[in-house]
Design goal:
Helix content is 33%, strand content 33%. It is elongated, with a radius of gyration of 25 Å.
Length: 212
Amino acid sequence: MSTENTLEHKTTKANFDGKQEYTITVYAENRIGLLNRIAIIFSKRKINIESLNTSPSEIDGIHRFNIVIQESYEVVRKLARQIEKQIEVLKVYFNTNDEIIWQELALYKVSTDEIAEKVTVERLLRQYGASAVVIRKDYTVFAVTGHREETDALVKALEPYELIEFVRSARVAIIKDSAGFHEKLKEFEAFEPGEELVENEFLDKGEKIFTM
C-alpha cells in the first residue's frame, strides 16, 4: 500500500515554520503489541505524546487511535509514514485543530459542604456548562465536555472550593472533511481487489475420482 496515497493533509493550513498541535488519526487492526510499537516510534524521536485515545471505529474489527503532539509539519509527516509501515495499520491521517472536531471529558470532585456554603451549584453548572454526575454528603462530582481551555477554566474556578480530584480524558476527534474510513476501504478494494475465487473442478465428483 502506497503511503503517498493514504496520507491526507491540507497543506495550506499547516505552519511549516514552527511547531503546532497536530492530531494523528490511525486506523488499524486491534492487535496485541501494536500500541507499544507505535509508542516506540515517538520515544525514539524524543517526541512527547500529549494525548492518546484508542477506541473501536465505525468498521467492525478496526480500531481508531487519536494521538496529539506538538510538532512541525515535516516531523509529523515523517511520523505518519513510519506508523503506516506497521503491518496492522491500514491508514494514517494527520490534521491541525482547524481541520477536526474534537472534545475532551473532565471530571471534578469537590466538597459538597464547601460548594453549598460558598457558591450555588446552579450558577456553577450554568456558567461552565457542567453537569452533576454524583451528589453525596461528602463530595459532589461535576462533568464538563469541551476543549482544553474550557475544562481548565473550571479547574481554576473550583480551586477556592477545595477541589479534591480532577481527571481529564484523552482527546476524541473527527476529521471535518472526511467521508469516513469505510469509503476509503472501498477505494482500496477497487484499486487492489482480492484474488477471484477459483472453483474446484473436482467438487461433488468424489465417487468418480476415488472409485477403484
